[in-house]
Recover the amino acids of this structure.
């Protein structure tokens, strides 16, 4: 039997709200315990509500304080490892897509060139082929020359560093 979706919003009845809070808090603490056991990670929670006079700290005040102290003593660079902001993510994504596009264009050029060469070979006599085909071959060869120059330029701009 499937559960129906819960409509999110403040529960009007205070008694029902308190009961729901207690049940969901217990479920959350159970999930935190499972996460801690299954993944061998440090987990703590601070839960403050209008129903309790003081906040609940899980698993204990001492354990939570120890985790906070370890976090504070961790260097900022190590703490933020792997984090990037949206701008950096988007710049990396755009760069990768531009590289993919460039690779695909080069692949398409190569396939066009091979296709044209195959057509010319199929006709077996380049001199007797149509002038339109010869013009296609000229344009394609010009593109190949540009690609080769671009590859040479890229290769010359890359320098091998020896920091060993």
């Amino acid at each position: 039997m499937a559960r129906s979706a819960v409509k999110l919003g403040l529960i009007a009845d205070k008694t029902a709200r308190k009961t729901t809070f207690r049940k969901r808090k217990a479920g959350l603490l159970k999930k935190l315990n499972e996460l801690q056991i299954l993944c061998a990670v440090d987990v703590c929670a601070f839960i403050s509500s209008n129903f309790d006079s003081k906040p609940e700290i899980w698993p204990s005040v001492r354990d939570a304080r120890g985790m906070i102290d370890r976090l504070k003593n961790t260097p900022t660079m190590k703490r933020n490892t792997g984090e990037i902001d949206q701008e950096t993510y988007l710049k990396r994504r755009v760069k990768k897509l531009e590289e993919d596009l460039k690779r695909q264009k080069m692949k398409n050029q190569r396939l066009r060139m091979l296709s044209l060469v195959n057509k010319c070979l199929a006709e077996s006599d380049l001199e007797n082929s149509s002038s339109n085909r010869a013009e296609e071959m000229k344009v394609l060869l010009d593109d190949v020359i540009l690609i080769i120059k671009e590859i040479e330029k890229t290769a010359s701009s890359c320098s091998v560093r020896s920091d060993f």
